[in-house]
Design brief:
single chain, 375 residues, alpha+beta, four-stranded mixed beta sheet, 11 helices, 13 strands, MPTase-PolyVal, DNA primase TraC, ArdC_N, single-stranded DNA binding
Length: 375
């Protein structure tokens, strides 16, 4: 809200003073995985050029250290279990012959809010140079960001009609209306605008089925715009094409009102934006392909889970594994253990699960022969 009032939000200023994109997709360099939409937004709002983020424990385990006086950025995640020390009836910690504290995994009946403080790569010492990390990330990528964006738009099979001066999604015709490409400042601006309209297109009842009946200028209309804008930020960060929410001035005061009156709306909007990004980028399909093979562990696996990193020391024929966390605590996990299942999910799932929030969706009547969304 403060950034919106100052005119410095990601919606209003997609480019930083140094010419770099305002939002850089955050990634855990140890696991190579991204963060859930809400956490990605929180980390991206810190405006670092370095995409790498880790907890202090995970960084130390990887041989890196937090620089003096640096402050972490807090994220939240659904926590389904906790590792606790085993104690005697008198409350004394039990240790084995090697002096290692014995632990147990406690499962929660309902997910609880877990928290962790993460540090950006620029806040860490002895980290691989950013240029080398980015070069390795781009290995094997034969398409430019604009080419990847154009391919994503084409792969969506959305109906795009060129002509006129406005860019919008017509829900009744299930078609995107775009000005001719030459009317845009450059190809990137055209692609960014098309991606924003694709985000609205995703809400059709045959796809993600979001409520989009609000009239222009209404709160319901602004809620849909917020979802499309955040989705554009996430997709632009993934494709490295950046984002451009062209009509931001018309919605900022309404965005600020929504965030003030309905604080949880930002979490709901980012959850929906993640679904949009998954649909358009094909994340769901990639995940299904990965899960086609039987998932499992192998010796040497390093898995970032909650606020620590687990290293697989041994695997057994029974599928049990011996792991060591960043503090040096070792334990054997059987397939039916909660921590075993959580680590397997963390390894195979490319993103953190979102917090589940209850939401009420209002309904309104559809009017007119054309319903413009995302003007």
């Amino acid at each position: 809200m403060a950034e919106i009032k100052e005119g410095n939000s990601l919606f209003q200023k997609p480019i930083k003073e140094n010419g770099m994109p305002a939002f850089v997709k955050p990634i855990n360099p140890t696991t190579g995985k991204g963060y859930s939409a809400m956490n990605a937004l929180i980390l991206g709002m810190q405006r670092h050029d370095d995409p790498r983020w880790m907890s202090a424990d995970a960084a130390r385990y990887a041989g890196n250290w937090v620089k003096k006086d640096e402050k972490g950025t807090m994220i939240e995640f659904p926590k389904t279990s906790d590792i606790q020390a085993i104690r005697t009836a008198e409350g004394k910690v039990i240790k084995d012959d090697a002096g290692v504290t014995q632990t147990k995994t406690v499962e929660f009946e309902k997910p609880q809010r877990g928290q962790a403080f993460l540090f950006n790569g620029s806040q860490l010492k002895d980290l691989q140079p950013l240029e080398e990390f980015l070069a390795k990330q781009n290995e094997g990528q034969t398409l430019s960001p604009n080419e990847r964006a154009a391919k994503m738009i084409d792969d969506s099979k959305a109906v795009i009609i060129h002509g006129g001066q406005e860019a919008y999604y017509d829900k009744l015709r299930d078609a995107i209306i775009m000005p001719e490409p030459e009317h845009f400042e450059n190809e990137t601006k055209y692609l960014q605008t098309a991606i924003h309209q694709l985000a609205h297109w995703s809400g059709h009842e045959s796809r993600l089925n979001r409520p989009m009946e609000g009239k222009f200028g209404s709160l319901d209309y602004a809620r849909e715009e917020m979802r499309a804008a955040i989705a554009g930020i996430l997709i632009g960060g993934e494709l490295k094409i950046g984002h451009n929410f062209g009509q931001q001035a018309a919605y900022m005061s309404t965005f600020a009102k929504i965030l003030k009156d309905e604080p949880f709306e930002i979490a709901k909007a980012t959850r929906d934006a993640q679904k949009i990004a998954n649909l358009l980028l094909g994340t769901s399909q990639k995940r299904e392909q990965k899960q086609g093979a039987e998932p499992g562990f192998k010796k040497g696996d390093e898995i970032n889970y909650l606020d620590t990193t687990y290293k697989v020391l041994e695997t057994y024929k029974t599928k049990s594994i011996k792991v060591e966390d960043a503090d040096g605590t070792r334990k054997v996990l059987k397939p039916d253990y909660g921590l075993y299942k959580s680590l397997l999910e963390a390894k195979t799932n490319p993103r953190e699960p979102e917090m589940v929030l209850e939401e009420e969706q209002g309904q309104s009547e559809e009017q007119g022969q054309t319903q413009k969304i995302g003007r």
